[in-house]
Amino acid sequence: MPREWGRQKPTRVMEMSDNSTILEIKNLDVAYGHAKALYAVSLSLKQGETSFVIGRNGAGKTTLLKTITGLLKPLNGSVIYEGREISGSPPEKISLDGIRYVAQEKKVFGNLTVKENIELAAYGAGEPLERALDKVIGLYPKIRNFLKIKAGQLSGGQRQILLIGRALVGEPKLLLIDEPTEGLAANVIEDVTAILSRMKGHVSAMIVEQNLAFVNQLADRVYIMKEGKVEREIADRSAISDTREFEQYL
Amino acid sequence: MNKEDENTPGPMTDLLEFKKHLPKERILLDLALIAAGFVLLAPILNVQRVTDFMIFCIFVLSFDLLYGYMGRLSFGHMLFLGAGAYGGGLCIRYMTKDPLLAVLAGIIMAGLLAMLLGIIIVRTTGACFALINLAFNQVGFFLVLSVLREITKGEDGIGVVPAGLGWLNLGSRPVMFGFVLFFLLLVFYILRRITTSPYGILIRSIKEDEARVKFLGYNTFLYKWLTYVFAGCVAGLAGTLSALNYGYVNPNFMDTHRNVDVIFAVLIGGAGNLYGSIIGGVVYMVISNYLAIYIPRWEMFLGISLLILVFRFRQGIWGFVREQGSRRSVRGEIGVKKG
Fold first, then answer.
1. Does residue B217 sit at the A interface (CB-CB below 8 Å)?
2. What are the φ and ψ backbone dihedral angles of B314, each rounded to 5 degrees?
3. CB atoms A128 and B9 under 8 Å
4. Element housing A204 (H / E)
5. Which of A85, A222, B11, B240 is a good FRET partner for B45, with 20 to 30 A between their CA atoms?
6. For residue A176, what are the CA distances in angstroms to A59, A126, A217?
7. Burial per residue of B131-160, b for 16 or more beta-carbon CB atoms within 10 angstroms, e otherwise
């Protein structure tokens, strides 16, 4: 059977706005039916950069990630990834282009074993299983003990780590992670922080988060969202370190 | 293409990579157990009945692939059984009396129908999926009953008398038993390997959460369509074997009411497990064939059994047996540790 079966054709190449920019969002308007959720959102992400999107519940953070992943279609505006327009593309095509999404719900395939969860990602990404397993075990060695158990039996923290590990299978270029530390114990947050710190510089990441200590440890850039709009952009490390200023937006 | 590229798995080619997932000895043992089970049942329950049971088990296996593994409940799977029966029957009546070619014609007929309808049907889920299948089943039933009467002979149906298979006469009950057993084992073998391959993992994950499978880069439509077509082909095989076994085919082979049989059988045995399908198929056939002799309204007994299953044994007979087995092994381990 042809190797291309199940794969999408690559998207059309548009003009590159900036060589070091991996993702550029311009004037994005998104609505759920008649209820508008994003108003002319514009932001960008550089290669290898970890940027955070913070804001109160309902600010439009998750909607933004869902639009980038192709789950929602924008009313207006564009999502340019590596110089290509991807807004409106199906999620599977966007995933194959190198964008991986870790949703907020921490949903693994509960009836599959941990190994099968990784295997599924490996075949989807075209990476040999052994290499994918090595990669995930390398990130979180404890997972070796859980490979044969059903993923549904994992704790919330273990699931989150499995999801992040699974998203890193197959050389992704951009990770979109929604509230990775929500509901996790302090020691698990440390594990998640360690994993993402190791990925810093190698994979670009856009993370939606409300945990300011976590933001402070990893952020290269912070976007503050309020009522569907980008209120502020902070790219200065010293300004990011002073998280007190962010508290008024949470 | 460099060497590394050649070794890089593609979505379909390597999804069907089986070797490392299931040892050959294990499959051979499974096949031997199934064959031995039916051979032992034959003298007890009558060879012709057991042949019928085996055909029903093939049909249940095809339905389980769709429902138990991929999570798509169809109320119209009889359409493909009927298509296979008519495909094989018409082949014998108008083209050749070779039973193997008839089987091939039945599979092709059901497969082509599934390919065509699958393009529309697999885009739906839940009640919509179930009812669209039922609607097409109903359309198929009336087509063979009236619109295509010239070819199908309507309600009277057509006689299906195949030639021998070499020196073997399919009219002989033991020969037909062996012929059907061969196809049952073949179907079980193929399904066992498919469901334990990464492709099997993929369709099970579609059952759990299709959107997340898409996020992993899979075009789920293609895999759902392939599974639908394959399930249709296996049901078509069961249909042709059924026509060969009975020696005729009529619109009852496509009767929408009989969809309930296969749903009950899968639930009784345990959905999402091939052993469960075989057990469910046999248990359902025993209930429907033998209870009817002793209990006038045996369907009521079946309904009560189903209620008990739903409330007490949600995983079906096979699921219950496995659960008990794993509990015992855990107790055993604890006992060993304490000792």
1. yes
2. -65, -25
3. yes
4. strand A204-208
5. B240
6. 17, 20, 17
7. ebbbebbeebbebbbeeeeeebbbeebbeb
CA of A176 vs chain B CAs: smallest distance (Å)? 11
Q: Give the number of other Cβ atoms within 10 Å of residue B22's Cβ.
A: 15
Place of tokens 């099997």: B200
Q: How confident is the model at residue B12 (pLDDT cuts 50, 70, 90)?
A: very low
Backbone angles phi, psi at A10, to 5 degrees: -65, 150
A115 assigned to some structural domain:
no
The pLDDT-based confidence of A81 (bands split at 50, 70, 90) is: very high
Listed by start position, the domains of chain B span: 12-338
B293 has a chain A CB within 8 A of its CB: no
Residues in B closer than 8 angstroms to A3, CB to CB, are 10-13
Q: What is the CATH number of the domain that holds A69?
A: 3.40.50.300
In sequence order, the 6+-apart residues with CB closer than 8 A to the CB of B293 are none
Q: What is the pLDDT of residue B15?
A: 56
pLDDT confidence of residue B21: 59
Average pLDDT, chain A: 85
Longest Cα pair distance anywhere in chain B, in angstroms?
Answer: 76
Tokens found for residue B24: 């050959």
User: Alpha-carbon distance B74 to B198, whole Å?
Assistant: 24
DSSP per-residue letters across B127-190: HHHHHHHHHHHHHHHHIIIIITHHHH-GGG-EE--PPPBTTB-TTSHHHHHHHHHHHHHHHHHH
**Interface membership of A130 toward B (CB under 8 Å):** no
DSSP character at residue A59 = S
**CB A125: neighbour CB atoms within 10 A?**
24
- Which tokens hold the place of B162? 């195949």
